[in-house]
Protein backbone atom coordinates (compact mmCIF):
# COMPACT_ATOMS: atom_id res chain seq x y z
CA UNK A 1 0.00 0.00 0.00
CA UNK A 2 1.47 3.41 -0.89
CA UNK A 3 2.29 5.47 2.15
CA UNK A 4 3.20 9.04 1.10
CA UNK A 5 4.01 10.07 4.65
CA UNK A 6 6.64 7.40 5.24
CA UNK A 7 7.99 7.97 1.72
CA UNK A 8 8.45 11.65 2.57
CA UNK A 9 10.20 10.77 5.84
CA UNK A 10 12.56 8.48 3.93
CA UNK A 11 13.16 11.26 1.43
CA UNK A 12 14.09 13.66 4.26
CA UNK A 13 16.38 11.03 5.78
CA UNK A 14 18.20 10.89 2.46
CA UNK A 15 18.58 14.67 2.54
CA UNK A 16 20.06 14.47 6.04
CA UNK A 17 22.51 11.79 4.88
CA UNK A 18 23.55 13.85 1.87
CA UNK A 19 24.07 16.89 4.09
CA UNK A 20 26.10 14.74 6.48
CA UNK A 21 28.38 13.73 3.61
CA UNK A 22 28.86 17.38 2.63
CA UNK A 23 29.68 18.20 6.28
CA UNK A 24 32.17 15.34 6.53
CA UNK A 25 33.92 16.48 3.37
CA UNK A 26 34.16 20.05 4.71
CA UNK A 27 35.67 18.92 8.00
CA UNK A 28 38.09 16.49 6.37
CA UNK A 29 41.74 17.53 6.49
CA UNK A 30 41.95 17.75 2.69
CA UNK A 31 38.86 19.94 2.33
CA UNK A 32 39.37 23.06 0.18
CA UNK A 33 38.84 25.33 3.19
CA UNK A 34 41.44 23.59 5.35
CA UNK A 35 43.85 23.41 2.42
CA UNK A 36 43.53 27.15 1.78
CA UNK A 37 44.17 27.85 5.46
CA UNK A 38 47.25 25.66 5.51
CA UNK A 39 48.56 27.61 2.53
CA UNK A 40 47.91 31.03 4.10
CA UNK A 41 49.46 29.97 7.40
CA UNK A 42 52.61 28.85 5.54
CA UNK A 43 52.83 32.15 3.66
CA UNK A 44 52.24 34.24 6.79
CA UNK A 45 55.22 32.82 8.63
CA UNK A 46 57.58 35.74 9.14
CA UNK A 47 55.74 37.74 6.47
CA UNK A 48 56.01 41.52 6.23
CA UNK A 49 52.89 43.66 5.77
CA UNK A 50 52.91 43.46 1.99
CA UNK A 51 53.46 39.68 1.93
CA UNK A 52 50.76 39.23 4.56
CA UNK A 53 48.32 41.35 2.56
CA UNK A 54 49.00 39.22 -0.53
CA UNK A 55 48.54 35.94 1.32
CA UNK A 56 45.34 37.14 2.99
CA UNK A 57 43.82 38.40 -0.22
CA UNK A 58 44.58 35.04 -1.84
CA UNK A 59 42.74 33.34 1.03
CA UNK A 60 39.75 35.65 0.55
CA UNK A 61 39.73 35.03 -3.20
CA UNK A 62 39.73 31.26 -2.69
CA UNK A 63 36.91 31.54 -0.14
CA UNK A 64 34.84 33.65 -2.52
CA UNK A 65 34.84 30.65 -4.85
CA UNK A 66 34.74 27.75 -2.39
CA UNK A 67 32.00 29.02 -0.06
CA UNK A 68 29.36 29.76 -2.75
CA UNK A 69 30.24 26.41 -4.33
CA UNK A 70 29.60 24.51 -1.11
CA UNK A 71 26.41 26.43 -0.33
CA UNK A 72 25.03 25.75 -3.80
CA UNK A 73 25.46 22.02 -3.16
CA UNK A 74 23.19 22.29 -0.11
CA UNK A 75 20.54 24.14 -2.14
CA UNK A 76 20.62 21.29 -4.65
CA UNK A 77 20.19 18.78 -1.85
CA UNK A 78 17.04 20.64 -0.69
CA UNK A 79 15.68 20.99 -4.22
CA UNK A 80 16.23 17.28 -4.88
CA UNK A 81 14.17 16.56 -1.79
CA UNK A 82 11.39 18.87 -3.05
CA UNK A 83 11.45 17.07 -6.37
CA UNK A 84 11.19 13.64 -4.73
CA UNK A 85 8.38 14.76 -2.44
CA UNK A 86 6.30 16.38 -5.18
CA UNK A 87 6.70 13.16 -7.18
CA UNK A 88 5.47 11.15 -4.17
CA UNK A 89 2.26 13.21 -4.25
CA UNK A 90 2.07 13.41 -8.04
CA UNK A 91 2.34 17.21 -7.93
CA UNK A 92 4.79 17.81 -10.77
CA UNK A 93 8.07 19.68 -10.71
CA UNK A 94 9.41 21.98 -7.97
CA UNK A 95 8.84 25.71 -8.15
CA UNK A 96 11.84 27.46 -9.75
CA UNK A 97 14.04 28.85 -6.97
CA UNK A 98 16.14 31.91 -7.92
CA UNK A 99 19.90 31.29 -7.48
CA UNK A 100 20.12 34.58 -5.55
CA UNK A 101 18.48 32.77 -2.63
CA UNK A 102 21.95 31.92 -1.30
CA UNK A 103 23.48 35.40 -1.48
CA UNK A 104 22.80 36.47 2.15
CA UNK A 105 24.29 33.19 3.37
CA UNK A 106 27.38 33.63 1.17
CA UNK A 107 27.88 37.16 2.53
CA UNK A 108 27.46 36.00 6.12
CA UNK A 109 29.85 33.06 5.73
CA UNK A 110 32.46 35.27 4.05
CA UNK A 111 32.29 37.63 7.03
CA UNK A 112 33.79 34.89 9.20
CA UNK A 113 36.81 34.98 6.87
CA UNK A 114 37.13 38.77 6.68
CA UNK A 115 36.96 39.14 10.47
CA UNK A 116 40.06 36.95 10.63
CA UNK A 117 41.91 38.59 7.75
CA UNK A 118 41.23 42.10 9.10
CA UNK A 119 42.63 41.06 12.46
CA UNK A 120 45.60 39.31 10.90
CA UNK A 121 46.58 42.36 8.88
CA UNK A 122 46.29 44.64 11.92
CA UNK A 123 48.41 42.25 13.98
CA UNK A 124 51.04 42.20 11.25
CA UNK A 125 51.06 45.99 10.91
CA UNK A 126 51.51 46.30 14.65
CA UNK A 127 54.27 43.67 14.57
CA UNK A 128 52.56 41.62 17.23
CA UNK A 129 54.25 38.43 16.07
CA UNK A 130 53.23 35.25 14.29
CA UNK A 131 51.90 33.76 17.53
CA UNK A 132 48.82 35.96 17.25
CA UNK A 133 48.19 35.48 13.56
CA UNK A 134 49.11 31.87 12.85
CA UNK A 135 49.64 30.54 16.35
CA UNK A 136 52.43 28.32 17.57
CA UNK A 137 52.92 24.60 18.17
CA UNK A 138 50.26 24.37 20.83
CA UNK A 139 47.71 27.05 19.96
CA UNK A 140 46.02 28.37 16.87
CA UNK A 141 46.16 32.05 15.98
CA UNK A 142 43.34 34.19 14.59
CA UNK A 143 43.63 32.51 11.18
CA UNK A 144 41.79 29.24 11.57
CA UNK A 145 39.44 27.24 9.40
CA UNK A 146 37.06 25.83 12.03
CA UNK A 147 34.83 28.93 12.51
CA UNK A 148 34.51 29.20 8.73
CA UNK A 149 33.59 25.54 8.32
CA UNK A 150 31.14 25.88 11.22
CA UNK A 151 29.47 28.85 9.52
CA UNK A 152 29.27 27.05 6.19
CA UNK A 153 27.65 23.96 7.74
CA UNK A 154 25.17 26.22 9.57
CA UNK A 155 24.12 27.82 6.29
CA UNK A 156 24.04 24.47 4.50
CA UNK A 157 21.44 23.11 6.90
CA UNK A 158 19.43 26.35 6.64
CA UNK A 159 19.65 26.59 2.87
CA UNK A 160 18.68 23.02 2.19
CA UNK A 161 15.44 23.44 4.13
CA UNK A 162 14.87 26.93 2.69
CA UNK A 163 15.36 25.61 -0.85
CA UNK A 164 13.14 22.62 -0.10
CA UNK A 165 10.37 24.90 1.21
CA UNK A 166 10.71 27.28 -1.75
CA UNK A 167 10.74 24.36 -4.19
CA UNK A 168 7.49 22.98 -2.74
CA UNK A 169 5.89 26.46 -2.82
CA UNK A 170 2.14 26.15 -2.17
CA UNK A 171 1.82 22.96 -4.19
CA UNK A 172 0.90 20.90 -1.13
CA UNK A 173 -2.20 23.04 -0.42
CA UNK A 174 -3.25 22.91 3.23
CA UNK A 175 -0.03 21.49 4.58
CA UNK A 176 1.82 20.61 7.74
CA UNK A 177 5.56 20.57 8.44
CA UNK A 178 7.30 17.79 10.33
CA UNK A 179 10.82 17.67 11.77
CA UNK A 180 12.89 14.66 10.69
CA UNK A 181 16.17 14.02 12.47
CA UNK A 182 18.70 11.36 11.59
CA UNK A 183 18.44 9.03 14.55
CA UNK A 184 21.83 7.69 15.57
CA UNK A 185 24.30 7.95 18.43
CA UNK A 186 25.21 11.52 17.30
CA UNK A 187 21.65 12.87 17.50
CA UNK A 188 21.34 15.58 20.14
CA UNK A 189 18.69 15.45 22.85
CA UNK A 190 17.03 18.46 21.16
CA UNK A 191 16.64 16.63 17.88
CA UNK A 192 15.58 13.36 19.51
CA UNK A 193 12.85 15.39 21.23
CA UNK A 194 11.71 17.25 18.11
CA UNK A 195 11.86 14.25 15.73
CA UNK A 196 8.32 13.73 14.41
CA UNK A 197 6.95 17.03 15.73
CA UNK A 198 4.26 18.46 13.40
CA UNK A 199 3.53 22.19 13.05
CA UNK A 200 1.47 24.34 10.69
CA UNK A 201 3.04 26.05 7.68
CA UNK A 202 4.09 29.24 9.53
CA UNK A 203 4.24 27.75 13.00
CA UNK A 204 7.50 27.31 14.89
CA UNK A 205 8.84 24.02 16.20
CA UNK A 206 8.95 23.89 19.96
CA UNK A 207 12.34 22.76 21.17
CA UNK A 208 13.29 21.12 24.45
CA UNK A 209 16.57 19.53 25.53
CA UNK A 210 20.09 20.68 24.76
CA UNK A 211 21.82 22.07 22.83
CA UNK A 212 19.42 24.52 21.20
CA UNK A 213 19.61 28.05 19.81
CA UNK A 214 16.12 28.98 21.04
CA UNK A 215 12.91 27.49 22.41
CA UNK A 216 10.79 28.06 19.32
CA UNK A 217 12.26 28.02 15.84
CA UNK A 218 10.78 28.10 12.36
CA UNK A 219 13.36 25.75 10.79
CA UNK A 220 16.62 23.90 11.40
CA UNK A 221 19.46 24.19 12.23
CA UNK A 222 18.28 24.03 15.82
CA UNK A 223 21.83 24.01 17.21
CA UNK A 224 25.43 23.99 16.00
CA UNK A 225 26.11 21.09 13.67
CA UNK A 226 22.39 20.28 13.40
CA UNK A 227 21.47 17.92 10.56
CA UNK A 228 17.70 17.84 11.12
CA UNK A 229 15.46 18.58 8.16
CA UNK A 230 11.76 19.10 7.60
CA UNK A 231 9.09 17.60 5.40
CA UNK A 232 6.01 19.36 4.08
CA UNK A 233 2.96 17.18 3.75
CA UNK A 234 -0.65 17.82 2.71
CA UNK A 235 -2.68 17.69 5.92
CA UNK A 236 -4.82 14.81 4.67
CA UNK A 237 -1.71 12.67 4.04
CA UNK A 238 -0.57 12.68 7.66
CA UNK A 239 -0.33 9.16 9.01
CA UNK A 240 -0.39 8.95 12.80
CA UNK A 241 1.27 5.54 12.72
CA UNK A 242 4.28 6.99 10.93
CA UNK A 243 4.63 9.78 13.50
CA UNK A 244 4.19 7.34 16.36
CA UNK A 245 6.94 5.10 15.06
CA UNK A 246 9.23 8.13 14.61
CA UNK A 247 8.65 9.07 18.23
CA UNK A 248 9.27 5.50 19.35
CA UNK A 249 12.54 5.38 17.40
CA UNK A 250 13.74 8.64 19.02
CA UNK A 251 12.77 7.52 22.52
CA UNK A 252 14.56 4.18 22.07
CA UNK A 253 17.69 5.97 20.86
CA UNK A 254 17.52 8.32 23.85
CA UNK A 255 17.69 5.34 26.21
CA UNK A 256 20.96 4.09 24.70
CA UNK A 257 24.17 5.23 26.39
CA UNK A 258 25.76 8.21 24.62
CA UNK A 259 29.20 7.55 23.19
CA UNK A 260 30.29 10.92 24.53
CA UNK A 261 33.44 9.21 25.66
CA UNK A 262 34.79 8.59 22.16
CA UNK A 263 37.80 10.57 23.28
CA UNK A 264 40.16 7.77 22.31
CA UNK A 265 39.25 8.35 18.68
CA UNK A 266 39.44 12.10 18.93
CA UNK A 267 42.31 14.28 18.01
CA UNK A 268 43.08 17.61 19.52
CA UNK A 269 43.00 20.99 17.99
CA UNK A 270 44.01 24.15 19.70
CA UNK A 271 41.72 27.11 19.23
CA UNK A 272 42.74 29.83 21.66
CA UNK A 273 41.51 27.42 24.24
CA UNK A 274 42.17 23.85 23.33
CA UNK A 275 39.23 22.18 21.77
CA UNK A 276 38.78 18.48 21.54
CA UNK A 277 37.41 17.95 18.09
CA UNK A 278 35.96 14.76 16.84
CA UNK A 279 36.88 13.47 13.42
CA UNK A 280 33.60 14.47 11.82
CA UNK A 281 33.39 17.84 13.51
CA UNK A 282 30.00 17.35 15.13
CA UNK A 283 30.16 20.44 17.29
CA UNK A 284 27.82 19.42 20.03
CA UNK A 285 30.33 16.85 21.20
CA UNK A 286 33.14 19.30 21.65
CA UNK A 287 34.63 19.82 25.05
CA UNK A 288 36.66 22.92 25.71
CA UNK A 289 39.83 22.79 27.75
CA UNK A 290 42.47 25.37 28.54
CA UNK A 291 45.47 23.38 27.32
CA UNK A 292 46.32 20.26 25.39
CA UNK A 293 47.36 18.62 28.63
CA UNK A 294 43.90 19.26 30.06
CA UNK A 295 42.34 17.91 26.89
CA UNK A 296 44.30 14.70 27.31
CA UNK A 297 43.40 14.47 30.99
CA UNK A 298 39.78 15.14 30.03
CA UNK A 299 39.90 12.40 27.41
CA UNK A 300 41.38 9.99 29.92
CA UNK A 301 38.66 10.89 32.40
CA UNK A 302 35.93 10.41 29.79
CA UNK A 303 37.31 6.99 29.01
CA UNK A 304 37.45 6.11 32.69
CA UNK A 305 33.84 7.24 33.18
CA UNK A 306 32.83 5.21 30.20
CA UNK A 307 34.38 2.05 31.60
CA UNK A 308 32.86 2.55 35.02
ZN1 LIG B 1 20.00 18.69 15.40
| Total number of helices | 9
Query: Uncertain runs with pLDDT below 50, 5 residues or more?
Result: 260-292
Radius of gyration: 21 Å
What ligands are attached or bound here?
A: zinc ion
Mean pLDDT level? 86
Q: Can you tell me the number of structural domains? A: 2
The helix-and-strand class reads mainly alpha
| Shape, per Cα inertia axes | elongated
Residue share in helix: 40-55%
Task: Report what the structure shows.
The protein is mainly α and 308 residues long. The chain has 2 domains: 4-255, no CATH class; 262-307, no CATH class. The protein has helices at residues 4-27, 32-44, 49-88, 103-125, 130-133, 146-168, 189-194, 240-255, 292-307; strands spanning 175-180, 198-200, 205-206, 216-217, 229-234, 267-271, 273-277, 287-289. The strands form 3 sheets. A 3-stranded antiparallel beta sheet has the order 2-1-5. Strands 6-7-8 form a 3-stranded antiparallel beta sheet, covered by helices on one side. Strands 3-4 form a two-stranded antiparallel sheet. A hairpin with a 1-residue loop joins strand 6 (267-271) and strand 7 (273-277). Helix 4 runs antiparallel to helix 6 (146-168). It is elongated, with a radius of gyration of 21 Å. The N and C termini lie far apart (48 Å). Residues 260-292 have low confidence and may be disordered.
Amino acid sequence: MPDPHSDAVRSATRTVEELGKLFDRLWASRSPIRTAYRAVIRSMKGANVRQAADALSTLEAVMRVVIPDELRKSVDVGLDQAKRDLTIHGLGDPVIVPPTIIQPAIDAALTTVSIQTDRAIALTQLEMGDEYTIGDDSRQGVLRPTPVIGAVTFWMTSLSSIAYTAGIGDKMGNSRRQAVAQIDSDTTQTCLNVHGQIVKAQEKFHLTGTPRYADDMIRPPFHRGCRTQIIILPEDQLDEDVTRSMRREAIEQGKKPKPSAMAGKAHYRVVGHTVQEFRNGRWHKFKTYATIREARLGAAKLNRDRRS
